[in-house]
Amino acid sequence: MRPPEVLLGNSDDVYDFYRAHRQNRFQAMGAYALLGRRYRPRVSYADGARTAIRDLVRARTPLLIAVNHLSRLDPYTLAAAAWRSELRPVIGRTRVLAKDELFVEEKLRRRIDMMGGIPVFRGTDHGLRAVNAAGQRMMDICAERLAEGDSLAVFPEGTCNYVNPAQVQPVGTGIGHIAFRAVKHGVHPALLCLGLSYGPRADPTVEPTKEEAKSASFHFTVPRTELPARPAEIARLVRTDLQQALDGAVAGY
Fold this sequence. Notes:
- With 253 residues, the protein is of the alpha/beta class.
- It is 44% helix and 14% strand.
- The relative contact order is 0.19.
- This is 1-acyl-sn-glycerol-3-phosphate acyltransferase.
């Protein structure tokens, strides 16, 4: 199927395409390895997290990965951390939610597609009412991909944190709805929170440069294999666990 233009008015065709889209795993592994060498992130784990993640990966349990969001470079440093962590085996089988504007320029879109991107039409960009139907379809597609064995990475704060990089911002219920819908498809994804820190910054409204983003600190919490029943409860749990992960990343910088 030819990739459709990623426009809100074309969202049905967009999500039909990403419902079936498959990454080139060989290319993805190569790109993630390159980013791992370029950014050289430091990766740490809470007690028991490394073994638990390894066991879930070996069991082919889909992972719902939540990461705090600090800059436009996060997808690249996250990919670097995946290469240098227990997530390496799921590279090429992990989808990443990314804002729709990243899919406009052809060369960048090919890169995002190769890395597993799925477009998100955000209410902050298009208006909440305008994106409602597309958002519902996006969550359905994510749940279906989890049910088929893919993992999914989400920045659940929804936008970059330019307020306090050491404090997780409000988490929307979208991640909870995705997990809830996955269960309806008969799969129970494991929640894995991953904290990211670029170190202390005098002005959090100024994003780190590519050079400053090198050697970022990532910290994994122990994954949760049992989640609350309601989407809002899942979202609250995500914020709590994500703050613990962020605290670990800040401490490890």
